Amino acid sequence: MVPFAPSKTQKVVHHGFTAKVGLVHIAFVSTELLPIYGQGALERLVRGWAKWIAQEHEVTLISIGQGVTEDYSGDLGDLRHIWASSPSDLAGICKTHHIDLCCVNNRPGWLHLTGTTPVLILHNFSTAWRLHRYPQQPVSPATKVIALSNALMFHAREVLGLNFEQLDMVYPFLDPAFLEGSTIFRKTKQGQLKLLFPNRIMYKKGVWATLDALDLIGGKVDIDFTLSLSPNPSDRHFTNLAIKRVNHTEHARLIRSVSHPYDLADLMLDYDGILMPSVEPEGFGLVAMEALSLGLPVVASNLGGLSHAVECGAIPIDPLHSPSFAKTLTDLGEIEQPIPEIKFIRENLCLERSAASLLSVLLRATQP
């Protein structure tokens, strides 16, 4: 599809659908949409889509929670941001601000609370972000649902029981920070390897599995873990245990996490490889694709959306098999090969294509 930024009277064609476009007020709803430190890829995606769509339509970001005091690590531009202390406040906010459509990220239980046209965007599987309660919070067959990967499309149909007609797939995008440079060749590295684990300190992200593998290596590899914590209180006990273990593991250390895309790209480029050893399926694995786009070796489990990264050149591992995981890490410095997928990744995961596809789906959802 050719990227476009529609005017207020332009016709949009998408999958055989044609509709006259008027000014639409779209809200994106999630738990935290302000650009603060320690966020993951979901928030970067939503803010990128929102800024692009706001060129022609009115856009509001709604964060559900109690607010934060941290300094922002980014700029919201002209986007309006509203805090809602509870999902039950959504209907009142939408009515007050004349919102036409709500894009709810990962929370099917909030759809009926918006008081307006809802669209569900699935960034992850039902085991994540409390989506295990999905069967008790069914989605109306008339509600549009957007999945961000083939794996999530399959999950939505086969596990969550959604019908094919209500499903659309919109691929995410890479921030321009990961589209610069011309690195297309992995070089061998002599001596000590320095690897980065850029994910949250959570069991499902493979922290424990990585430390188990590191214990078998015997000092040939250094691994830095970004100190990015889960916002879910139920994860706190494991997080504390994991932090203690990192602090007591030789050749492992915690570093401050970064959220601004250019800071993250600069951080990644200081390392010899990136680790994405999730032990549970990822929705898409955007960080892995970002690292591949920079020409960095990526070690990833082949689960869920991370299969996209493996198809594009990531090195697959079973993170729960410590001996083979450890061998992959020690062999990483011997890799020397071209990465032709970089051009494919950069051309297909661009903001214009992703946001235009998303906007087309959203505008169709507003049609009677």
Describe, in plain words, how this protein is organized in 3D.
The protein is of the alpha/beta class. The chain has two domains: 11-172 and 350-365, 3-Layer(aba) Sandwich (Rossmann fold); 177-347, Rossmann fold (3-Layer(aba) Sandwich), CATH 3.40.50. Helix content is 29%, strand content 20%. The protein contains eleven helices and 15 strands. The strands form three sheets. It has a seven-stranded parallel β-sheet with strand order 5-4-3-6-7-8-9, sandwiched between helices. A six-stranded parallel β-sheet has the order 12-11-10-13-14-15, sandwiched between helices. Helix 1 packs across helix 11 and helix 4 packs across helix 9. The longest helix is centred in the C-terminal third of the chain and has 15 residues, at 351-365. The protein is globular.
Question: Which key terms come to mind for this protein?
Answer:
single chain; 368 residues; alpha/beta; Rossmann fold; 2 domains; 7-stranded parallel β-sheet; 6-stranded parallel β-sheet; 11 helices; 15 strands; 29% helix; globular; disordered N terminus; transferase; Glyco_trans_1; glycosyltransferase activity; Glycosyltransferase involved in cell wall bisynthesis
Write the layout of secondary structure elements.
Elements: E1 11-14, E2 17-20, E3 25-30, H1 41-53, E4 58-64, E5 80-84, H2 90-96, E6 101-105, E7 117-122, E8 144-147, H3 150-158, E9 167-169, E10 193-197, H4 207-217, E11 221-227, H5 236-247, E12 252-256, H6 261-268, E13 273-276, H7 286-293, E14 298-301, H8 306-311, E15 315-317, H9 322-331, H10 341-348, H11 351-365
